[in-house]
Amino acid sequence: MRKWIWLMLLVLMTVAVLGSRGSTFFEQRSSPTIVERIPVKTPEAQPESREVYIALQVSTDKLLNHIQNLNFQRYTTKERSLTRTYITTELKKFGWKPKLEKFSDGVNIFAERLGTNKAAKAILVAAHYDTVAFSPGADDNASGVAVVLEVARMLGSRPTPRTLQLAFFDQEEAGLLGSQAFVSKTARLQNLGGAIVMDMVGYACYTAGCQKYPAGLPVTPPSDKGDFLAVVGDTEHLSLLNAFQNSQNIPSIALNKQESNLPAVLTLPIPFKGLLTPDTLRSDHAPFWYQGVGAVLVTDTANLRTPHYHKPSDVPATIERSFFTGAAQIVVNATSALLEKDQLLETQPPS
Asked: Of 6, 158, 234, 350, which has the highest C-beta tally within 10 A?
């Protein structure tokens, strides 16, 4: 009995102690503490230009992949047909509707993405796709084809005031036959504000004396190293050249350092449609000049720099990756800037 008395006393004492501390299971919750509400900050939207710049970064891998896929002679009828199949297939992947335009000696490829301002004239970006015999033409001119395809990928779905046109010329090596056939359609030229033509944009050399120059240049050569991109334009359409002078204004948020390391640009304003400097008339921009349409040639200067010009050694391994990527970025930057404008590109005569 005494044991039970002591046990009852122990239980009562325990209850008393717990009651004094408050039960963790049955406690009456106190009024909630008033806490100052701090509004949740919605992250500020990034400026639209930042998104645009990121989207406009060229892809080195895609550029080099095009050159590798075109690593074969593109001289015979069959070889050029295979090349057209590759180009049109790629364009369709990017949402374009390419058209084959036959002429007596070959077939050009043309595609168009309309702009938002019908009154603004179009900008054409072009390159030839054929080669000489026995050369796979990595630099001449798979490099130019690759850049046009990259322009197609990046700017095809981007609305701009100006219309963007693409052309791939056949039979350039036979005497500019494809571009001559293209400009023979005068009705098309009426809505063309300017053309950007690429012919060899993938080779660079960095040793003294590796760069040569033709006689009669209107500017002083920057150096005897082949580390710059040359842009040749007629003095009647200096706005096209100016777009390339400003094309190195790349944002600091480039995807990597390599893509922000753009080569220097040497702009060459040529008077009298090249009559005094015939070396400046050797590619597909020249027929546009003689139709009164502004055009620039973007080039690594061809045989004035590379030892592989028109040779079997013009293979993908000779493409200088960093220079080629930078050259492509410059073309994209200049093209994008021109597409955003809607004023005339002709040089205004002095008043």
From this structure: 234
Instruction: Work out the average pLDDT over 338-347.
Output: 79
pLDDT at 286 exceeding the cut of 70: yes
Is 284 in contact with 178 (CB distance < 8 Å)?
yes
Report the C-alpha gap between 121 and 191 in whole angstroms: 5
Give the contacts of 338 (CB within 8 A, at least 6 positions apart).
123, 162, 193, 194, 196, 240, 243, 345
Q: What's the CA angle centered on 63, arms 58 and 69, to 5 degrees?
A: 160
CA distance 132 to 145: 15
How far is 334 from 52, CA to CA, in rounded Å? 14
Walk across the sheet containing 164-169 and list its strands.
99-103, 106-113, 164-169, 122-128, 192-198, 295-299, 228-234, 264-270
How many residues are given for the chain? 351
- pTM score over 0.85: no
Using a 10 angstrom Cβ sphere, with 0-12 exposed, 13-18 middle and 19 or more buried, the burial of residue 188 is middle
| Nearest to 260, CA basis, from 271, 248, 268 | 248
Q: Which residues of 105-128 are buried (b: 16+ CB within 10 A; e: fewer)?
A: ebbbbbbbbebeeeebbbbbbbbb
Residue 224 CA to residue 242 CA, distance in Å, equals 24
State the chain's maximal CA–CA distance in angstroms: 130
Residue bearing the bigger pLDDT, 99 or 9: 99
- pLDDT value at residue 261: 78
Q: What is the pLDDT of residue 37?
A: 40
Q: Is pLDDT at 48 greater than 50 in this prediction?
A: no
Of the two residues 109 and 251, the one the predictor is more confident about is 109
